[in-house]
Amino acid sequence: MSFGFLGIQFGFALQGGFMSRIFQTLGADKDTIPFLWIAAPLTGLLVQPIVGYLSDRTWHHKFGRRKPFFFFGALFSTIALFLAPYSSALWMAAGALWILDASINISMEPFRALVADKLPDSQRSYGFVVQTLIIGIGTWVASNLPWLMTQLGVPNTAPEGVVPDSVKYAFGIGAVVLFTSILYTILTTEEYPPEDLEAFQKEKEANKGFFNGVKEIFKNITGMPPVMKKLGVVQFFSWFAFFTMWSFATPAITEHVFGATDTTSEAYNNAADSVGNYLGTYGLVSMFYALILAFVASRIRINRRLLHLGSLILGGFGFILIYFISEPWMLHISFSLVGIAWASILSMPYAMLSSSVNPKKMGVYMGIFNMFIVIPQIVASLGGVNFLYKLLFGEAVINTMLLAGTMLILAGLSNLLITDKKAIHD
Predict the structure, then answer these.
(1) Using an 8 Å Cβ cutoff, are 267 and 258 in contact?
(2) Alpha carbons within 13 A on the beta-carbon side of 227
(3) SS (H, E, C) 165-225
(4) Which own/partner pairs from 264-271 qualify as long-range (CB within 8 Å, at least 24 positions apart)?
(5) Which of 66, 212, 327, 418 gives a 20 to 30 Å CA spacing to 336?
(6) Whole-angstrom Cα distance, residue 263 to residue 36?
(7) DSSP 8-state symbol, 327
(8) Domain boundaries in the chain?
(9) pLDDT digit of tens for each residue in the chain (426 aa)?
(10) Quick one: DSSP state of residue 382?
(11) What is the spatial distance between Cα 403 and Cα 36, in angstroms, rounded to a whole number?
């Protein structure tokens, strides 16, 4: 039931690792890159609660509850992945990113809800960790695709304003993997009908209509459980940090570590491939860390709060270490620490949340919870990253990694706000 996350992460890894490279190739200034990302989180802020609400109220004897959303999200994500590297102008690339991110999210949050639908509370930590294991595999493979294409002889440079073929091939492969892996989950996973189908249909009819839906979503937002609000603080700092990485890792590392800035040069494009390789490291390490967590969570009770706290702080130190690196291979050490944080971000908050919400509203609450992912990205893209890194650390673009590390350490410490015993323990 989680195999489709392999494809989802192919999409996210290619987006996070190489969209800034595409923006730079098309002539974007470093300080404008975060703004080019803004449409995606803005759409997620609106789309996710709606998708969650609708998936909670969907049931078809053949297509199930969550699977229709998997399919349509996969279809539009696939189209956007194919088109993104063929953009000839910045507005086209930003539009492709907008469609890609929104479509992936249409599939992703129902996947989260599916795990909560099908597993008892005692197995949810294990279930979300297994998803993270699959995500780690997808991150590692997808992040290395442009490098692999280059090794196979695909051109890695192109004229000014044109994305290299190595990136185009990588996005094409990612599109195929995304669609086929989600289709595999759709075809092989059985969903359970509502416990009381007649009551489900009556409630659905009673709340039918657009305005009733908006009213219900707003009611759920204002009445969210206290644990969800506290997790929202943790999520804000966590996703601000990772948005900073996705936006600035390529310009920061290619300039600071490799001394390459000319986007038409072989040096820059090889360095950008290497950045993808290092980003793949955090996916690979998150896979192994998730494997360890899966083994532990299936056998003993774990303290989710302390585990998440420690993992995020380690990731924060990983970002900060990038500033002090003198040899490129040392980036593997930094991103290994980041991978520990990433594995925890993709599992522990959802395990804590799913233990604290009404199972009948799992989809809408997972969608609302996504607001705590997209709001920090909106804040960051509207100037939050540019203002803070220059204010706190200085003008050099590598200082964005110092900001990311600081934010992730704050995210870790914010776990101390969570006191609900049911959320903390399995």
Answers:
(1) yes
(2) 20
(3) HHHHHHHHHHHHHHHHHHHHHHHHCCCCCCCCHHHHHHHHHHCCCHHHHHHHHHHHHHCCC
(4) 264/157, 264/158, 264/159, 264/160, 265/157, 266/156, 266/157, 269/156, 269/157, 269/164, 269/166, 270/150, 270/156
(5) 418
(6) 18
(7) S
(8) 4-424
(9) 778 878 888 888 898 788 888 998 898 887 888 888 777 777 777 776 677 666 666 666 667 667 787 788 889 999 999 999 999 898 899 888 888 888 887 777 777 677 667 766 666 666 767 777 787 788 888 888 998 999 999 998 888 889 999 999 999 999 999 999 988 988 887 776 655 455 555 555 555 555 666 676 677 777 777 888 888 899 999 999 998 998 899 899 999 988 888 888 888 888 888 888 888 888 888 888 877 876 776 677 778 888 899 999 999 999 999 999 878 889 999 999 999 998 888 778 877 877 776 666 666 677 677 778 888 988 988 888 898 999 999 989 999 999 999 999 999 999 998 887 776 665
(10) I
(11) 20
- Out of 3.90.25.10, 3.30.365.10, 3.40.50.2300, 1.20.1250.20, which CATH number does the structure's domain 4-424 have? 1.20.1250.20
Cα–Cα distance measured from residue 26 to residue 125, given in angstroms and rounded to the nearest whole number: 42
- Cα separation, 84 vs 95, in Å, equals 8
The residue among 269, 301, 276 whose CA lies nearest residue 126 is 301
Query: Which amino acid, residue 68?
Result: P
Cα distances (angstroms) measured from residue 29 to each of 34, 115, 147, 252: 10, 41, 24, 12
Q: Is residue 131 classed as helix, strand or coil in its secondary structure?
A: helix
Whether the Cβ atoms of residue 346 and residue 135 lie closer than 8 Å to each other: yes
Report whether 381 contacts 34 (CB < 8 A).
Answer: yes
* Cβ contact 384:404 at 8 Å: no
Helix (H) or strand (E) holding 405: helix 399-414
